[in-house]
Amino acid sequence: TVLVACGTTVSACWILSLNSWMQTPTGFEIIDGRVHATDWWAVIFNPSFPYRLTHMLLASGLTASFLIAGLSAWRWLRGDRGADVLAALRSGVVVAAVLVPLQIYAGDLHGLNTLRHQPAKIAAIEGVWRDEHGAPLLLFAWPDEGERRNRFEIGVPKLASLILTHDPDGEIRGLDSFRGAHPPVAPLFWSFRVMVGVGVSMLLVSWLAAWALWRRRLPGPWVLRALVAMTFAGWVATLAGWYVTEIGRQPWLVYGVLRTADAASTVPAPMIGLSLTAYLMVYVLLLVAYVSVLFHLAKKAAGAAHG
User: I need a labelling partner for 171 at 20 to 30 A (CA). Which of 5, 10, 26, 67 fits?
Assistant: First the structure.
């Protein structure tokens, strides 16, 4: 188990280093239209790498914690109430309750780094169209790129500026400052809110469960049902976060260096669509199989305990 954890962590480091370089490229020069590395340390440890790596490792820990807690809660509700189930439930809940605040802090640092290096991404995330001092934090809005404004805004005054600049009257550059070079707004705006919304739910559920376990020593039915509902919350939040990351760097493949359109394949669109559909079908089948096996094993363990 330790070897697997170490191996996947090393793999994640290299993957995230590459992806981070595509977001915040450093340590290179362009010669005859080609990118050449001039400083490998700067390439690997580029400005966003430490934040992205920390954010992803914490997300992985939370994903595993809620998976363990959720499956253990499901077993408990089915009458499998052995000491091992309670221990697994406690471990998942406690680890999640500790990691969520750390993830919020790491996310704040990551956001400040993104504001510094990719301000257009932040403008799209916050739905800010024109430069604003004291920008509100939009809890809900419907971004309209055609009219370059938001519809049905519900926001908290000055909170976006306070979070991003640590100054309630701080300036956030708007999307109009990046015409032709900012990402699509609606997908980014909503993906970020899904990620944050799930994260807040994880905080509330983990702390409620930790408090219930500490007070009562045994979990109550509503707490157990909440944990079961949150079993795969980590995957949802992580997927939404990667949507924010990858959609947010558009229209750039390598931010500020190479546009996606300039690296587009010459393969016909229908062929690309067919390949993408095939990949999606395979991964959907794998996901269904994975979830089914997890609950089958949990059900089998519960049956064995009763036997």
Answer: 26
Q: Using CA atoms, how far apart are residues 55 and 105, in angstroms rounded to an integer?
A: 9
The pair of structure tokens assigned to 121 is: 């991404």
Report the C-alpha gap between 118 and 182 in whole angstroms. 10
DSSP codes of every residue in 83-128: HHHHHHHHHHHHHHHHHHHHHHHHHHHHHHHHHHH-HHHHHHHHT-
Nearest CA to 55 among 91, 2, 7, 19? Answer: 19
Residues of 194-216 as b/e, b for ≥16 C-beta within 10 angstroms? bbbebbebbbebbebbbebbeee
Containing 172, the helix (H) or strand (E) segment is strand 171-172
Hey, what amino acid is at 40? W
pLDDT single digits (tens) 198-242: 999 999 999 999 999 888 777 788 989 999 999 999 999 999 999
Phi, psi of 98 (to 5 degrees): -80, -40
| Cβ atoms of 203 and 100 closer than 8 Å | yes
User: 10 Å Cβ neighbour count for 293?
Assistant: 10
Q: What would you measure as the largest C-alpha separation in the chain, in angstroms? A: 72
Contacting residues for 210 by C-beta, under 8 A, at least 6 apart: 93, 94, 97
* Phi, psi of 9, rounded to the nearest 5 degrees: -70, -45
Tens digits of per-residue pLDDT, 39-87?
999 999 999 999 999 999 999 999 999 999 999 998 888 887 888 888 9
